[in-house]
C-alpha cells in the first residue's frame, strides 16, 4: 500500500510538471483567456478531470505556468551569454531582437507574449512577471554598469523597455520588412552600433 501511494504521488508530480511544461507554451501562444481547461489538459495528454487534482484553479495554473515560462526565458538569456560572454548585452539583444524570436511565440519571452494578459489579472498572476522583470533589469544593470540609488537607472529601464516594446510591435504587424526594421533600429538604439549578426540567434531558436 505504501509503495502504491508513493508511486501515485510520484505520478501526480510528474503529471503536474507535464502540465506546467506544456501549458506555459500554450499560454504564450494563445493567451491566458484564449484557451480553456479542456484544451490545456489535452495538450498535456491528460483529461480535464485530472486538472483539479493538480491545481486549485485556472489562476493557480496560470501563476505556476508563468513562473515556469520565466525560467525558460532565463535559460535563453543564459545560453546567449554563454555563446558570447565577452559582450553579454550584445548577445542577448541579438537573439531577443531577431526575426527568429518574433516567430517563436510559444517559446519566446513570456513578458512579450503575456504582459497584456497579466495586466488584466490580479496581484498573484502579476507577481511572477514582476519578479522576472526585476531580474532582467538587475542583469542588464550588471552588464552596462549602471546603478541609480536602490533601483535600476534610466538606461537599464530604457533598454528592457525597448527590447520588449520592439518585439511586441514587430509581432503586431504583417509586414515582415517593417518588422525587421523595427527590430534592427531598436538593436542599434540600445547598442549604439550596427545590428549583430543573426547567426547566434538562429542557433538559439532551432528546436
Automatic annotation (TrEMBL):
PROSITE patterns: HTH_TETR_2
Transmembrane region(s): none
SUPFAM superfamilies (UniProt xref): Homeodomain-like (SSF46689), Tetracyclin repressor-like, C-terminal domain (SSF48498)
Gene3D superfamilies referenced in this protein's UniProt entry, alphabetically: Homeodomain-like, Tetracycline Repressor, domain 2
Protein's UniProt keywords contain DNA-binding: yes
DNA-binding region: 36-55
Claim: Signal is one of the keywords in the record: no
InterPro entries: Homeodomain-like_sf, HTH_TetR, Tet_transcr_reg_TetR-rel_C_sf
HTH tetR-type domain residues: 13-73
Entry keyword set: DNA-binding, Transcription, Transcription regulation
Pfam families linked: TetR_N
Name of the molecule in the record: TetR/AcrR family transcriptional regulator
Organism: Sulfitobacter porphyrae
